[in-house]
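Submission sheet (multi-component)
Chains listed below:
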Amino acid sequence: MTYTKLNSTHLDRLGAMVAPDRISTGVSNLELHARDESHHEACLPEAVIWPEQKDEVAEIVRYANEHRIPVTGWGSGSSLEGNPIPVCGGVVLNFNLMNRILEIREEDFQADVEPGVIYQDLNDKLRHKGLFFPPDPGARATLGGMIANNASGTRTVRYGSTRHNVLRLQLVTADGEIVRIGTRSSKTSSGLDLINLFVGSEGILGLVVEATVRLVGLPAAFSAAVASLPTVEACSRAVFQIMRAGLNPAALELMSPECIDVMNRERDLGLPVSPTLFMEFHGTAEGHLADVLSMAQELCEEEGGTAFRSGLGRDERDRLFRARHELSEMIRREHPDRTHSTADVAVPISAYPDIIAWSRQALEEAGIPGYIFSHAGDGNVHLVFMGKTGDAGEWKEIGRIYDRLVDRSLASGGTATGEHGVGLGKRKYMEAEHGASLAWMRRIKDLFDPNRILNPGKLIP
Amino acid sequence: MTYTKLNSTHLDRLGAMVAPDRISTGVSNLELHARDESHHEACLPEAVIWPEQKDEVAEIVRYANEHRIPVTGWGSGSSLEGNPIPVCGGVVLNFNLMNRILEIREEDFQADVEPGVIYQDLNDKLRHKGLFFPPDPGARATLGGMIANNASGTRTVRYGSTRHNVLRLQLVTADGEIVRIGTRSSKTSSGLDLINLFVGSEGILGLVVEATVRLVGLPAAFSAAVASLPTVEACSRAVFQIMRAGLNPAALELMSPECIDVMNRERDLGLPVSPTLFMEFHGTAEGHLADVLSMAQELCEEEGGTAFRSGLGRDERDRLFRARHELSEMIRREHPDRTHSTADVAVPISAYPDIIAWSRQALEEAGIPGYIFSHAGDGNVHLVFMGKTGDAGEWKEIGRIYDRLVDRSLASGGTATGEHGVGLGKRKYMEAEHGASLAWMRRIKDLFDPNRILNPGKLIP
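Outcome: structure written.
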């Protein structure tokens, strides 16, 4: 595919579609849209535009399609696989000004939002209504980015991924048309499901300009606990037993001792430096959760658990989970001369102890600073290596470990990417994971975007 | 589209792909595959084939595609919108011999099944393992049919539709290729989501030849209750309050007095002939559910509830829900000279009281025997009229009422079909519900099945 480089005529025309202060070719602006939070190489777009209205998005995309100019959507740039890096140049559409919460319908547990809304801001607004939007990716992600990546997080084990919490979308397709899909009914069997085709499509089929999301009532009761176990393998077996027992945690996170050490030092948590589980349960009354907690404690003790601290108050719980959410940044601060790279496989829960044991061994053998943390209840493992910046040998070794980790995940029926999406980094695994169905993904891409202007170079190898 | 009529050469070739006793052109077999349980007109296929292996399906479809012969999948024929009626003739593939439960992986809450497995048979097998497959369409549906229709039922309000319980599929596409999609991981953000595109596609994109479904642990505790209220409108408001309070019922069914009357007579239930709610709650311990039940009772009493019977044992609960599941058949038996027609709209829960009030009024004004029953917690309403067979005037009136009901549902953000699919009967509403996105559904159909041999005439107008 060859794309048109932006010239001054293009820039004039695009500039006329928005206010002059909402288009930029300034280097500092281009640099702010050249990389996400991954280790993938930066690549400058040719222009950044901040649309305010969906009609502007439609007009820009229509023009870009006619002129074969790449268009890549941008939320907060917090993705981890290079998903929005404009590798073919062109225009980046930054949705930060389309950040209106258009309507909250408490009685239907629904909200209409623009793509630039930050999910934490939405939840701040929902809290005093007793509601929340459950996908919890940690970073200050935008709703548009979460939808594009089918983002997940600590709450997914109970409340699902972003995909399970989207009812309607308005999209701008490559031909510049605004298309509405989905229904406000919580249940439908009407026609082909386009919602799920677009959720997780990483902006290669169209751009989300409005969404109706499903909300959940804040639980009347919650309880949180921290368990220390002798080994990460023992943690992983406790996780399997907790899930098998149907305890339905609202969060179940595993951290290797290296993670706890960093969190203790940065946040003074005072946790034993052991393999650790954070867990949380939601219910209708405090009393009900006591039984669940004591079952969880029993299962941890059967695996040799040495400490189980439950009955954490909301402040203590928030302090722990905030530290967990900021763990990636803490790890990066620990190693200023190194660059992080995060594996993100997910496996059926019966294969979880094995993949954790393998990861632990890889970490020990590698001789590279490494960390394991995991949305354990989902079988989703993050193995993080801090590779020396510029050390080709170390990076080659990290790549080799990740390839083997993905092989192992796929062999157990798992996936190469649990929640970070494909972006640039996972394209090489798509053939192995999807086989013949990858050809169908490619055909669908070509159907929606025959000129391949939408986020080119991503998702499909 | 013009299709090839089957001649003796075609039949010989198709017959050679399976054993001779697994293809039939006998009239009685053709008649058994000419209609589902709807009022839609019967239409004979030209041949019925019973495949035993996925390779046979692939070979048959490949041949049919080359020769432009329609192919329609068949499960148990229990659908309600004419979904598998072979309106363009051709071959019906009856999957009843592909009914093996291939593997049950208790530890992962998953099962691999062939499309001809009856969901009740699967649940019978799962029960002693403490598991169940939650979508509960009532009829003796096959898994393949449930997947094709994205079937739902009484349990959907808590456990989701079929779509939420499918992880992997093996499909035969129109070109006769066997394609594997999805992952056994409960979480993934890998590539475009093809699973949800196929679930609910009514066999127009491909034929399911194997599925991995998600199972759920049987609840440690359950409680069921029956509430009588003065009007269906009062019932609908109680439903809204129960859902808004987050009581998370495992079933919440509304029945008009006409339904209760029929059920009492057929099953000697002894219920007050009033508007009635059946409800069920699942939890981890009996004690926990007592609070939930007393909240539900309070909400019903605030709407004037006159009787609330809780603490039903499992036998009593099964007796009530079995009667509820067989309600459609009972209604049909009541009116031997009439034919049933079932509306199936679903709306956001805040619009539920209004759509119920409207339905009640329509029922009273029509002067045609009619019944309202509803998967109320989902906002899914069935308005059933028993129209005099052959009475064009009465059927015209029923059609007019349904059109208005769908208009009203769509205006409130709802859908024309909550769980019965589009089939033949709902095609006329697709334009109004989906607008411009219908064109994308059509393009996707043409991409997967350019010769339109797969279940032609369905879903897309």
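Remark: Chain A has a mean pLDDT of 95.
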